[in-house]
Each structure stands twice: as structure tokens, then as C-alpha cells.
Amino acid sequence: MRKRLALALALSTLLLGMVSLTLGPAGISLSDTLLNLTGRSVNASQQYIIFQLRLPRVLTAILCGTILGGAGAVFQAVLRNPMADPFVLGVSAGASFGVALSITLGYSAFLGLPFSALLGALATTALIFLVGTKHKVSQTTLLLTGVAANYILSAGMTLLMFLNHEQYDRILFWTLGSFTSSTWAQVLFMVLCVLLFIVPMRLSHTEMDMLLLDEGSALAAGLPLQKIRIVLLLLATFAVATCVAFFGVIGFIGLMAPHMARLILGPKHSKMLLPTCLFGSFLLLGSDTLARLLLPTGEMPVGVITSILGAPLFIWMLRKGRYAYV
Amino acid sequence: MYSLEARGLTGGYDKQEVFNNLDLAVPKGKFIALTGPNGSGKSTLLKFFYKELIPTKGTVHIGGSEVSSLTQKNLARKLGFVPQNGRIDYDFSVLEAVSMGRYAYGGHDEEGSIEQAMRDCDILHLTHKRVTELSGGEMQRVLLARSLCQQGKVLLLDEPVNHLDVKHQRTMMNLLKRLAEKNLSVICVLHDLLLVQVYSDETILLKKGSVFANGPTEEVICHDNLKAVYNIDAHKIHDPALGRDLWMPTWY
Question: Which residue of A has its CA nearest to B74?
Fold first, then answer.
């Protein structure tokens, strides 16, 4: 089941990627796209559009989806809450606030952005971690803490935009999310990020299962609880911060992807982690493709599409009480 | 050598010290009841033995080894723990849930301890059922099986029959008694004084973070101790099935 699902998702993402490569005002057909991809086209303008504009965009959306899906699974395991997601908990907002602050202060070189995002995300994660792992804190309190963090950081972003009119559009980009200006350098950086995040995460699948137990049982069964929690959260925070630094805040992928994988394959992380990442890729590439299609001119920020898809799921999960402790 | 020992144990939660210089030695291979009023420190005491809490002063020992010197995995090979109101909110299968008890062994189970634990707890027929579909009694037996397949010599249980009906309480308690008879040290937090008297070999009676009485159950559970610890009167009744007298709280 797991292998068939993974294959179906990988093929769907590939197909979607091909469709996405053909979309755009230049009107390059599928056959021309294939000719370009296989190096059999001599049309320099088409080559430029496909290789320098569209392919990096498709690849970054896939890689970013992988990370956001995986990060959602990590946050949900560490905080024992299926509704935890870097966006819902304010971690993404923390990263984007870090970036906005960095721009406002004039410190936004290529590597400066991920670093600023990381600092912002780490500060928010630390807050969530302290609240979420405290003895007898309800899951509702945790989610509300995230919502409050989101409010505060959004207010901070608005203030920065208000104080810094020249950088208004630039800062706005990080609040909504977009793959418009993806580059090959970002693709390479994201590949590295995926490897540094996904490999340790996959190797920790048993630990992630154990994290779903109550604290006492996990400890008594031999799990070095705090160490595992901190390592996994740091990895996920680093990965999410990188995504936000390059592409802005993209919500709900981390909520939707693990939920879909868990519904089909059950909660065991050895089975659901890879499909979670593939669901993340498919969802984000699909959302980006829709973002390019839905408006007659121009395009929508991808974060709007993912929120339109994810927010109803979030509300449904809250109402349904699928998990008794929510 | 004792199954559990606390030497000058001092500690508790961030803002609340529960124990101050507590000394305690628990014999091996017996069914020990840990009882006392709410807030006396029963559950808190267990937490020091699986390292959810760390003593600020003093030491705790398990099977002769100082707990602080053991890694979490090595500690897990010496004990098992069944939590209060234990449940697993994600729909693992029963087999997957029990297998988590083998984490300290890298998931390996050459000796068939998972199957043995499931047989001991009479849950083999539930192997592929989802834990979210289990009744309270079945869930407790799954949690117990998970602890048993850790193959420790000490089993800690925090009010394991709290939310079970009488029939399931009896099933669970009989099972624990059988385990104690197989030379496992069973240390069980219990509120129900009847269960304490029927099942335990020895009882530790706690009051406000101190050991008020510790020894054979028939000596510890008596009118004077119950009056001093709970401020209740008690009277004796004869249980013909057990063939001995039991202390009952006077309800009115």
C-alpha cells in the first residue's frame, strides 16, 4: 500500500510538474516543453523560459512541499498534536518576521535571510516548546499560544511595513508566499536542506512513534525524550525557516500532508513519513499551479491557495474532534 | 538487594517540593501497594524511578543500580511502567503498540517477548485491532503487555484500575498478582483500600511526602493508621471467600 501510494504520488507530481512547465504567457506547448527538457530544441528564448524561470519554480515548489510536509509531521509528533503545523503555531510567521526585520535593518544578503528567518523561527519554536511540553498543558492551550504568537508577529510585520514604505512590497512577499523568483541557487540550497532534514527525520521514525506516547510511558520505555524533542524540533525549524526565507509564509501544507498520509497508512512513521513528504510536494506544486491559473492576469500568492485548502481541514478537524485530546 | 530504594530523596516539581529526605526500601518479587491520600506523593514517587523527575538531593536505585547513572535505554531494561489513565490517541494496531516496549532493545525481539507478554495479558486475539477501538480494560492490558515486553524485573503501575468496572478490575489485579508470583516486583499505586488488602503482600502508606507506614499489608492497613492518614474511622468485616478480616472505611 505504502509503495503504491508513494509511486502514485511521485507520478502525479511529475505529471503536474510537466503541466506546470507548460503554463505561462509565453505559450510553450507540452511537446515543445519536452523537446526543451530533452535538449532537442534550438529555441533560445524557450530554453531560457523553461530552464531559468519555470523549472526552478517547479523544483523549489516540490522541495519546499517536501520540507513543509515533513516538518508538519515532526511538529505533530513532538507536540503530540495532529493539528500542530509550523504555520498554525506561528513558527513560519516568526521566520518571516525575522526576514522582515532583517530587511528593515538593511541586513539581507543571500545568506542573511535564512539566518534571520532561523532566528525568528527559533524564538517562536522555543516559546511553543516551553508551553507545549510543560506538565499538564492542554493541547488547546498550545494551539491558542500559536494563534497568539501569530497575531503578535503579524502585528509586528504590519508595523515594519508601515515604518518602512520603500520596502513595503518586499516585506509583503514574505507574508503571502510565492515561487515567482525561484533560482537555481535556491534549488541547490533546498536540495541540501531536504537532505539535511529528511534523512535524519526518516532515521528517527521509531523515536517519532514513541513521542506519540504519554511522557511517562515514552521515558520508561527508554526514549531520551527531551533530547529527541529538541533535535527534531531544531531540524524542522531550520528547514521551515529556510523555506520561509526564500519563498515566504506558506500555510497548512504541514497540516494537510501528514493528515492525508496518516488517514491512508495509519500513524506509524516508518510508513507515513515518505508519503507525507510526497503529499506535501504534490499539494504545494498543485497550489502553485493553481495560483498561476486562477487570475486572468498576473498570479495569486501561493499562500492564499494553501490557506483556502487547509483552513477548512483545520476547522473540520477541530469540529470533528477526530483526536480525543484536542 | 531491594527492587527499589530511595536514599535521602529530596525533590518534586518546579515550585513544589514533594519529598524531603525520604528513605524507602522496597523488597523484591512481591506485590507492593503504594497508597495514601490525594497529594501524598504516590505518582510523584514513581516518576523519580523512570527519570521524569530528578532528585535535587539524594538518590534513587533500581535493582541496586543508581538511576542517575543509567541511560534511559538501560533503565528501560530494568523496569516497565503503566501510566494512570493511559491511552494511545493514534490508531496504532495492538501489535504495534505493544512492540514499542522493545524500543530499548532496538526493536529486536529474538526471545519472543512480545508474543509472551501478549499471551500473559490475554490480548493475542486483539493483535490487529486498532488501539482506538479498545475498551478500557483491553487498553490497560495492552499497556501492561507493552511494559512486560521490556523484560524488566520491576513493574510500576499508577492506578491501573482506576476507570475499570469491577470485572475488569478483578481481571487486571489477578493478572498483576500472577506476575508478582513469577518473581516480578510489582509496585502499584492504588486508592482502593479493599484492593490493597486483597492483593498486596506489603503496603507503603504515604502521608504528605513521607512514609507513614511500610510493611506487611495486614499490619499497615489498620484502624489507627487509616485514622491518622485519612482521618476516617474504619471497621473490620470478615470475607468468607478470602477467609480473613478486612478493614472497611466507615462511610457514615
Answer: A222
